[in-house]
């Protein structure tokens, strides 16, 4: 009995010592928010030959699914009429590169009730998708650099202006300033009654009463694209060539750094059905598709 007791005490001491050795590692991981395993992006295709692609949007029309790609072609702030919208198939092949031309420098896009809404420097352009025709071009008051577009379930359109640090709203056929002093406002995403905004090195959450909450902070470059990949989980790109994963606790993990290769990562597209992330490379003149694998 005494022998068994001594063996038990020795075993307990060894377990305690092992715990004390490992505890600092666990504590550090919990303190800095580093996950035990991070999501992974795996490239599955790349489509070259595009003309300064800025944004990708997955669209479903009846049984047909494809990608809208906004092409600036000229300068990002030049009203030169050279821009347009291309269509890619989901395998990356180009279906119709000149689906619609004659825009200036089209950037972010969103779809609502058969219409494509596009941010085009200082105008919100509304396009009838079935006819591939521009319905209207609505000037945004005092706008300089309209960038991204999102639409909520009621059809309210929000547009960011990165140079004016501002958000616009298009509602009841009126386009007006909604919120000021959102530093370098870029990617926007409406989810239920909440608006998420990628701005400078932060991800913000804004409610319908304009209360602002910090979701995450610490991107190494200015944020650009924004998609939600699961409830409370986001992917944020920085135009310079960075892609981050933001989890529901606000921790960020770098998934991709293509700065050395000089491949930009602009306004992202997301396909929930296949867990595919679409990345326009802007000056790289291509769109890249990545499979997202989450732990």
Core attributes:
2 domains; 1 helix; disordered N terminus; 295 residues; Neuraminidase; mainly beta; 4-stranded antiparallel beta sheet
The CATH superfamily of the largest domain is identified as TolB, C-terminal domain
In total, the number of domains comes to 2
How many helical elements? 1
Instruction: State the end-to-end CA separation.
Output: 47 Å
Shape: globular
Task: Give a quick account of the main beta sheet: strands, pairing sense, barrel closure.
Answer: 4 strands, antiparallel
Q: Class by helix and strand content?
A: mainly beta
Order of SSEs: HEEEEEEEEEEEEEEEEEEEEEEEE
Mean pLDDT: 90
Spatial order of the strands in the main sheet?
1-24-23-22
CA radius of gyration: 23 Å
CATH architectural label of the largest domain: 6 Propeller
Given as residue ranges, the uncertain stretches (5+ residues, pLDDT < 50) are 1-35
Beta-strand share of residues:
over 45%
Would you give the CATH topology of the largest domain? Neuraminidase
Q: What is the CATH first-level class name of the largest domain?
A: Mainly Beta
If you had to describe this structure to a student in words, what would you say it looks like?
The model is unreliable at 1-35 (pLDDT under 50). The protein has a four-stranded antiparallel beta sheet with strand order 1-24-23-22, with no helix packed on it. A four-stranded antiparallel beta sheet has the order 2-3-4-5, with no helix packed on it. Helices cover 11% and strands 53% of the residues. It folds into two domains: 1-32; 33-293, TolB, C-terminal domain (Neuraminidase, 6 Propeller), CATH 2.120.10.30. The protein has 295 residues and is mainly beta. The chain contains one helix and 24 strands.
């Amino acid at each position: 009995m005494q022998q068994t007791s001594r063996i038990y005490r020795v075993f307990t001491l060894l377990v305690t010592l092992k715990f004390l050795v490992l505890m600092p590692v666990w504590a550090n991981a919990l303190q800095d928010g580093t996950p035990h395993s991070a999501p992974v992006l795996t490239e599955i295709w790349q489509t070259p030959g595009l003309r300064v692609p800025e944004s990708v949007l997955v669209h479903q029309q009846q049984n047909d699914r494809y990608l809208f790609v906004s092409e600036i072609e000229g300068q990002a702030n030049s009203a030169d009429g050279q821009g347009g919208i291309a269509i890619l198939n989901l395998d990356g092949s180009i279906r119709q590169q000149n689906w619609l031309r004659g825009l200036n420098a089209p950037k972010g896009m969103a779809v609502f009730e058969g219409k494509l809404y596009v941010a085009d420097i200082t105008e919100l352009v509304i396009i009838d998708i079935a006819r591939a025709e521009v319905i209207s071009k609505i000037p945004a008051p005092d706008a300089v650099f309209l960038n991204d577009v999102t639409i909520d379930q009621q059809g309210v359109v929000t547009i960011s202006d990165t140079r004016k640090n501002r958000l616009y709203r298009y509602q009841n056929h009126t386009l007006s300033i909604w919120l000021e002093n959102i530093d370098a406002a870029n990617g926007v995403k409406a989810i239920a009654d909440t608006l998420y905004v990628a701005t400078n090195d932060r991800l913000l959450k804004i409610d319908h009463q304009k209360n602002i909450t910090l979701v995450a902070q610490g991107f190494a470059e200015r944020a650009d694209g924004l998609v939600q990949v699961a409830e409370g989980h986001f992917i944020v790109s920085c135009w310079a060539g960075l892609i981050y994963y933001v989890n529901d606790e606000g921790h960020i993990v770098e998934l991709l750094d293509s700065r050395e290769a000089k491949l930009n990562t602009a306004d992202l597209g997301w396909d929930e059905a296949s867990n595919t992330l679409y990345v326009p490379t802007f000056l790289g003149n291509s769109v890249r598709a990545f499979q997202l694998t989450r732990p």
